[in-house]
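look at this record:
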Amino acid sequence: MSHILIVEDEAIIRTALRKLLERHRYKISEAGSVREATTKYRVTDFDLIISDLRLPGAPGTDLLKLAGDVPVLIMTSYASLRSAVDSMRMGAADYIAKPFDHDEMIATVRRVIGKAEQNRAAGPAAHEKQGRAIAGMIGDSPVMRTLYNRIHKVAPTDATVLVHGETGTGKELVARAIHEESRRAGKPLISVNCAAIPETLIEAELFGHEKGAFTGAQTAREGLVAAADGGTLFLDEIGELPLEAQARLLRVLQEGEVRPIGAIESRKVNVRLVAATHRNLRQLAAERKFREDLYYRINVVQMTLPPLRERGKDVLAIAEHLLEKFCAKISRPILKLSPEAIQAVTTYTWPGNVRELENAIQRAVILTEDQTEIDHRTLDIDLDLVPIDEADPERLPRTSLHSDPREDLSLEDYFARFVLEHQETMSETELAKKLGVSRKCLWERRQKLGIPRKKARRAVEA
């Protein structure tokens, strides 16, 4: 049974969290401040510390220096998101925004404790090896460290690699890293986007052709496969390769030889294949849109590139790296992201992944004039954000919240109770600011909890 320390000065939230975690078989201890936590307990004895960011006396981030290897999960509101990001840089395992629902909290707790247990089991040497970054790739999240570790293991071999990942996740960077860490690093890396070459030309491009092999073939030409001899061939979007070209590629992999279009004899080639796709090749093979024998031939070692939305604090690190890159490119002083821009970058789902983030940062650098910070409006990300400079810096109002703190009051009950008590005296904007959420989030919570919006009462003239 994992032992968790909750450090939270709001009795109503602390009680709700304790009840929630105890229902999921966690052992719980409580404290109302950093001082109380360090006085009553030895914080290094816990499996996890969940601490509010703002506490009386000292902030929750002070626990990061005292907890040793114990992971610290920081709770914060959206209005103090910059502080949460700073706490991640200081070493917090993760942060969770308030108000949050039960499923989100339990999933985060399980993930943080599980990762800490894996690190302890692996030992410091294995963790150091796994965490060894790769040139050109940014990120220190668990999923990226796992990817780095696999690249380090596979690169020195000649095994064929199949890279899965959404568009814009950086599949070519993985191929380049594998090539540069292999024994073929001194030979060519030939990259081919199979979706970018017309179907009628792709066989000639890949495998070459003899003079007069088809109309327009006025001279003989070496193909890209032969050009990669001794090195690495990277085929991006291999799922778009026509079936005829797939058959020729299979021969290259099986026999180690290539025969140009119109040629009588084949020539030997020694290439290592790294293929990439965002499609399900197994399903395409079942639908006879991809050769099954080729699928099994290239599916030797699989690597999966996580989408940006699953990479946690890596998003901000990548954004800041791109910011420095584009500022240097146009010879202007380094800009910073405003608190609202940080909120936007870290909460947006980035369907276009790193490519979309790169475009957003480049656009913002170009359009920002006579300022030292990039605003979220310049990023042009479609989010309904709470302006941080207008948000109430204080915690949620304490009037009536401490009175009658029912033991079984859940976090959703806490949210609903505050809205019901104040909706007749506050506007929707004021309610959202006090709760540290956007108006859109407040509206969605109303729908979920079944709390109708009441219009402000108007005085009736006699």
User: Anything to note?
Assistant: Residues 404 and 427 are 26 Å apart (CA to CA).
